[in-house]
Design brief:
The complex is a heterodimer of chains A (417) and B (428).
Chain A (H helix, E strand, L loop, with lengths): L2 E8 L20 H29 L6 E5 L1 H10 L1 H12 L3 E3 L9 H4 L1 H19 L5 E2 L8 H9 L5 E5 L2 H4 L7 E4 L6 E5 L1 H8 L14 H9 L7 E7 L13 H13 L5 E3 L1 H7 L5 E2 L15 H4 L2 H12 L1 H7 L2 H9 L3 H5 L21 H18 L3 H24 L1
Parallel strand pairs in A: 1-2, 1-8, 1-9, 2-3, 4-5, 5-7, 6-10
Antiparallel strand pairs in A: 6-7
Chain B lengths: L1 E5 L10 H15 L3 E8 L9 E3 L8 E6 L5 E7 L8 H22 L3 H5 L6 H17 L5 E5 L4 H11 L3 E5 L3 H5 L5 H13 L2 E4 L2 H11 L6 E3 L23 E6 L8 H14 L3 E6 L5 H10 L6 E5 L4 H9 L2 E4 L9 H7 L4 E4 L12 E3 L4 H13 L1 H16 L3 H18 L1
Parallel strand pairs in B: 1-2, 1-6, 2-5, 6-7, 7-8, 8-9, 10-11, 10-13, 11-12, 13-14, 14-15
Antiparallel strand pairs in B: 3-4, 4-5
The chains are: A alpha/beta (417), B alpha/beta (428).
Chain lengths: 417, 428
Amino acid sequence: MASVVFYFQVHQPVRLRHYTVFDKSNRYFDDHKNASICRKVANKCYLPANRLILDLIRKYDGRFKVAYSVTGTLLEQLEHFSPEVLSTFHALAQTGCVEFLAETYYHSLSFIYSRDEFVQQVEKHCRTMEKLFNYKPKVFRNTELIFNNELAHQIESMGRFNAILCEGADHILGYRSPNYVYKPKGCEKLKLLMKNYALSDDIAFRFSNRGWAEWPLTSEKFAHWVNQVNGNGYVVNLFMDYETFGEHQWADTGIFDFMRHLPEQILNHPDNSFMTPSEAAANFDAVGEIDIPHLISWADTERDLSAWLGNAMQSNAIHELYRLEKKIRSMDDKKLMDDWRKLQTSDHFYYMCTKYFADGDVHKYFNPYDSPYDSYINFMNVLNNMHIRCGDKVDVEGERIEGLKSKVKATKSETLC
Amino acid sequence: MRVFMLGWEFPPFISGGLGTACYGLTKALDKLGVKVTFVLPRMVDDMAGTHVKLLSPEHSRVATIFQYDNFENVEFCAVKAALSPYSSVDQYNKQIESYILEKQKNTTIGGNAPMASAGQYCGDMWSEVHRYAAIACELASEQDFDVVHAHDWMTYPAAVAVAKMKRAPLIVHIHSTEFDRSGENVNQMIYDFERQGFHAADKIISVSHFTRNIIISRYGVAGEKIEVVHNGVEKCNGNALLQEAGIEKDEKIVLFLGRITMQKGPEYFLQAAKRVLDVEEDVKFVMAGSGDMMHRAVELAAHLGIGRNVVFTGFLRGEQVRKIYRMADLYVMPSVSEPFGIAPLEALNHDVPVLISKQSGVSEVLTHALKVDFWDIDEMANKIIAVLRYPPLSTTLKNYGNYEVRKLRWEDSASKCARIYQEMLVGV
């Protein structure tokens, strides 16, 4: 028996506009670009994919199920630029075959830098799910599937959640299979669902790759692979970006047709089924404990945080951002708080990544910058303006420049010695 | 493989990037075992230096042949000609006048016939280029070689003549075009030399795609005839770390290093400097180099009211260049039209982050550099300030840039040239 658990990540950041050191305005975001990207993705992906999923749910009458994690930053943009997408999500929510997961509202890395902020963002996201879709999330997924034992513990202590998701990384699982339900180390009840990255990536990354030995991937072939799990696991966790449908894989690759026929092929086998993450957690006992002391993610081959925090610019930018937290809170200024939180979205740091800079790759997707350097400069200029809005220009600037000077001197004398 | 190569300048007698490029390329070809006869015009008579071995002890009528110690397969021929790179027709006339005056003085004292030796040089540049071609043919007739490889326009008439005479394939290598040097005010004579050279060539090597596009659009050359071979950079001998102690400075230094000519965009550098100084204090803008726009640059700096923060050092070489790199926090190359631009690679080699104009060939090969349109002075200032204010930016640029530069090797450029030579021979 194999239960297929589909979860789709639905996210767009609020991109910054070109912001130079000479800018004084507190308008940081590029409404025009955000609107056009939002509408483009809505037309190519969100609308056709939602329609397809809705059709499938109706066709299979409750036997086909999926889960979504829709970020707050996208929901706000959809509301402004593409409200029809919101209504299709609403329709999906009403079928009872769709689960909405909880995450940080701003798709942030706040878990690593501020526990307070993290909890607030998760709460905010849960409230939004209730308000928009009348759905109380029971399962949590962290930004980019960033995970460790401590996160699991934190999530369990919040008392809302039954399960959490993470990457089924080889170096974590070893001989074990991602196709079982586990329990994170140190947790009492919380279940852990691990991504089957091989099968997920067959759809998300390799589907249209003509150099791939298995190309073209048909739904029959894929169902056959799922059937092979029978006897060696209960669940097949297929976690991927929703933009896989129509954006990462364009419609003319046949991705929508693949999806249209997949449920039929999967359900051909009497032992197979579709489940939501909540159902999978409820139906299966944990077969073992997974110990992840260090942070992992679902990104790149390294499955670590280097895509967001791998170079000096990234770690500097994010540290400077969270250093502002106290000031921002003390200001009690809603707009300021909202701006600060939108800067926390992980994409801003992803754009500063120099790892795959040369070969382009997935990092280029929807990237508004020519280079990671441009993105860092832009981000720091915005942050600089935010310092000024916090009213501590003299203080922070002076302190920072003093710090800079001594730092420069230190590095200079280091190289001189 | 034997190559008859025609150039303009060669270290230590250089005034710009062309000499550096010829040196790097020839040295790498030497290592590949390609036999090169490198012909270059020289006005001065005595070439002898410590690391030079003269092969023809008595100065022959037309040329001096010698070899550098560190080259095995390369032989140099210095042809007595009054051609120097980057000079204009006016400059040539002045140069030749003063040379003749000088000669007359000397020879009158010596008692020889005054005009005899001065008569070696022709009175105008056009004739001199052709006289040079005649001498090159004379030299070539005594030599055996497979291909002719010529660098930039002054050598083209000579190269075309030699290739015709020996029925050898002609490769012209383009480091710069008249449009890069003069904008829209091109010198018709030079343009004609270039155009004839490009069309007579069997193959054109361009130092960038940027320049390739100019050759196609401005000279009407078919694209398939042009191959791009990017320049490399000499490895830094690691003495970047063995610096003298004591560069204590509170001021930040932003460096412009190159000829101060229209092509290099000095006025954009100064305009950006003005914008930077509007919001940042304690920044010095150093302009190292000389050129025909030097005076205008000095005036512009004064006019913008930033004279106190702009330093003109004049032309620097050797140790002085290394020293200025050590002091610099950022190197800026705001060129209006730069076929390649080796200097930013040298800056990175010296651990200085670079900001380069998008209108340059080097921006095709550097990813770890800040890039800006040369005319966009606000963005230029924005990026300069960012480097000065946010240390991680400079660190990241330096670390990755230094690594990236190490991958741009002359060996690779030379291998590409060697492959092109082979293809030419098969094709002919």
